[in-house]
Each structure stands twice: as structure tokens, then as C-alpha cells.
Amino acid sequence: MDENKKQICLTSVKATVLELFGIEKSQGDDVANPYIIEKNGGKIIDRAVIYNPDAVALWLYEKYRDKFIPAGQVSEFALPLKSVMPSVTPVCFASMYSGVMPEIHGIKKYEKPILTCETLFDRMIAAGKKCAICSTAGDSISKIFLNRNMDYFIYPTVWQVNAKAKKLIRQDKYDLIVIYNGNYDSTMHHNGPEAKKSLKVLDKNIAVYKKIAGYIKKYYADKRVFYGFCPDHGCHEIDGKAGSHGLDCYEDMNIIHFYSIKEAKKNG
Ligand SMILES: [Zn+2]
Q1: Euclidean distance between CA atoms 98 and 120, whole angstroms
Q2: Burial of 18 per CB tally in 10 Å (0-12, 13-18, 19+)
Q3: Residues, Cβ < 5 Å to ion ligand 1
Q4: Rounded to an integer, what is the distance from CA 167 to the centroid of its chain?
Q5: Cα distance between residue 154 and residue 142, in whole Å
Q6: Average pLDDT of each block of 10 consecutive residues along the chain (268 residues)?
Q7: CA 161 from centroid of its chain's CA atoms
Q8: How far is the CA of 52 from the centre of ligand 1 (A)?
């Protein structure tokens, strides 16, 4: 790896999506992911679907590479990204969707106030795009982006969230759909990141992403679509049988993102 190359931060997600939609060309601090922008070749996407599994660390990808094969099969890029400090869920997702560091968006610890700064959703809405969030009740993504002119589908279980997300893709009423699954995070906190139970949930998250990609291919056949597998922070083992995150360490700060741009299928 080129050591002079600055590692891409998860704050790049907002600028990347805005540039792909042709809403704003990234500049200054708002830096889009150069690999995705180059791959897209200046075209305009019609839809974006972002799957946010919680706490999928880069080291999990490095150590259990085979588990990620299904994600790789439906993606063009597997990229290591840097998270932000403190590496806890509301701080990281606030940075991912506001495109700025915690000291600017204001969530600097584990708390879930409604963000008042500009987010990807605000820019999309201002550009006339329709946005939806599918998430589980009480979780960061279900709370910090509220009070916007968009639709929130909040359910008690991950299963219901994913069923709704698939339905939304089938119905094709939204330009941007964000889907949150916190089940790996909660399982690894209680059992440790590498417990059998936790790794099984990680498998599930990867399978859900692959399934979503299949839905995109099928129901957005004639659309150009950007989609990704985009966790917020990593995780590390503590006390042998539990997991944690929030520190400025390799395990917590380095995450793996998968991205793809699906071409629009031409008719005739
Ligand atoms: Zn998290």
C-alpha cells in the first residue's frame, strides 16, 4: 500500500453519494471516494441503497476472508476505511451521513440527539429526491436523522427491517434507502467478536447484503444504482468472552466497506 496515500474516512460516504447523483461535485474537505467516482465515469446514478451492518471490523475481513466471499461476489470494491473517534455508533453514523468529523456535527460521545447539521438526507431532499431509513427501534440511525421530510420505517426486529427494505426496493418509491442491522454488534458485545454465535450473525449480515444486491439487480434492472455494505466502526475482544469498541485502536478504527455500481440494463 502506498504509505503517502491518505486513508479514506467514512465521512466520504456523503460526498460520494451526492456526486454520484450529480447533486454536488465534491471539493475541499468534502472528499468523495476517488475509486467509486472514477468507476462511475461521470454518469448519474438513479438510485442508492446503503446497507449499514454495525461493527464489522477490517480485521474480521482479514481473518475470515472466506466469510466475505458472498459480499465480494456482488461488489466491485472491498475497501478499508477509517472510522472516527470515539468509535461508537451514533458518532460514526453521524459522521458517515453528515460528511464531517464529530467536533463539527456535535455528537462526540454515546448519545443520540437529532442532528441539526446538514446531512446527506437534507441535500437529497433539497434536490427533490426521496429518502427512506429502515432501522430498529431505539438505535442511533432511527433517532439522529429524525425530523426530516423523508420516511422512517422503524421496527422491533432486524428481520422486519430487512423485509421492509426488500419491499421498498420492489416498490421503487425511493431514490435513497438506508438499512441498518445492529445484530452483529449486539451479539459480539455479549459473546465476543469471534464467538460462534457472533460469527453466525456476521454471516447473516453478509447474506442480507447479497440478497439486497439481488433485489437491486432484479427490481432496479433499468436503473443505474450505487449500493454498499457500510459499517460504522470495528470491535475488539475484552475479558475473553465479550466485545467492545470506542477506542482509538486498529481493531475499532479500521472497517471494511463493499461498494458497487450497477449499470442500467438497456431495453431492446
Ligand atoms: Zn456501531
Answers
A1: 6
A2: buried
A3: 54-55, 89, 232
A4: 19
A5: 7
A6: 68 97 84 94 97 98 98 97 97 97 97 97 98 98 98 98 98 98 98 98 98 98 98 94 94 98 84
A7: 15
A8: 9
Report CA(222)–ligand 1 centroid distance (Å): 34
Ligand 1 center from residue 185 Cα (angstroms): 6
Cis peptide preceding 86, ω within 30 of 0: yes
Q: Running DSSP on this structure, what letter comes out for residue 57?
A: B
Q: Characterize the bridge pairing of strands 176-181 and 47-53.
A: parallel
Does pTM top 0.90 for this prediction?
A: yes
The CA 54 to ligand 1 mean position distance, Å, reads 5
Q: Ligand 1 centre and the CA of 109: distance in Å?
A: 12
User: Cα(43) to centroid of ligand 1, in Å?
Assistant: 32
Domains annotated for the chain, with CATH where assigned, are: 48-262 (3.40.720.10)
Residue 147 in grid coordinates: 425530523
**What's residue 3's pLDDT?**
47
What is the C-alpha to C-alpha distance for residues 245 and 159, in angstroms, rounded to an integer?
Answer: 25
Say how many Å lie between the CA of residue 121 and the centre of ligand 1.
20
**C-beta separation of 92 from 231 below 8 A:** no
CA angle 13–19–23, rounded 5-degree value: 120
Residue 187 C-beta-side C-alpha neighbours within 13 Å:
21
Centre of ligand 1 to C-alpha 160, Å, is 19
Residue 157 burial (10 A CB sphere; 0-12, 13-18, 19+): exposed
CA 266 / ligand 1 centre spacing (Å): 39
Of 204, 197, 194, which is closest to residue 62 (Cα–Cα)? 194
Q: What is the pLDDT of residue 30?
A: 72
**How many Å lie between the centroid of ligand 1 and the Cα of residue 214?**
25
The 8-class DSSP code of residue 10 comes to T
